[in-house]
UniProtKB/TrEMBL annotation:
Homodimer and heterodimers. Belongs to the Casparian strip membrane proteins (CASP) family. It comes from Hibiscus trionum. It is found in: Cell membrane. This is CASP-like protein. It is a multi-pass membrane protein. Keywords: Cell membrane, Membrane, Transmembrane, Transmembrane helix. The keyword Cell cycle does not apply.
Length: 154
């Protein structure tokens, strides 16, 4: 079977999972450090979604480290099926959270004018956190695409 970039148990797969963790953690840290984020439901959903993504990616990164150290093959149909479902679920949740948060920030910045310079709303922190969430989703989409093709090759 051909090795795909980002497949489980490889160095590229480990790198993909670690970058997913890093971007999800950065998104969480930036959003949590902003004042009054908890008053907006979409931002709380973003925190929850990125937290779930962080846990999922961290778990799979640990599994990749184990497979690399023990030289194990993770291309088992049952394992890959689990990876596909987990990646697709977290990808959908992350995309929904990032889109809903982006919608809220567009509403507040462009339509309601809450993000004016004299306002005390930390809109730039919200925007950067949302951008990091979209980057996280892009990495998850790449991972889920690879997993789907590995599953299809069985």
């Amino acid at each position: 079977m051909k090795e795909l970039i980002g497949s489980p148990g490889t160095l590229s797969g480990l790198t993909l999972r670690i970058t997913q963790c890093a971007f999800a953690a950065s998104s969480i840290a930036l959003m949590v450090s902003a004042s009054d984020f908890s008053t907006y439901t979409a931002f709380c959903y973003l925190i929850a979604s990125m937290g779930l993504q962080l846990l999922w990616s961290f778990g799979l990164a640990c599994l990749d480290i184990y497979a690399l150290r023990r030289k194990r093959d993770l291309h088992n149909p049952v394992l890959v099926s689990l990876f596909v479902v987990g990646d697709w679920v977290t990808a959908m949740l992350s995309l929904a959270a990032a889109c809903s948060s982006a919608g809220v920030i567009v509403l507040y910045a462009r339509d309601l004018g809450f993000c004016k310079p004299q306002s005390h709303t930390p809109c730039k922190q919200y925007e950067i956190s949302i951008i990091l969430a979209f980057i996280t989703w892009l990495l998850i989409a790449m991972s889920s695409h690879v997993m789907f093709w590995i599953l299809a090759s069985f």
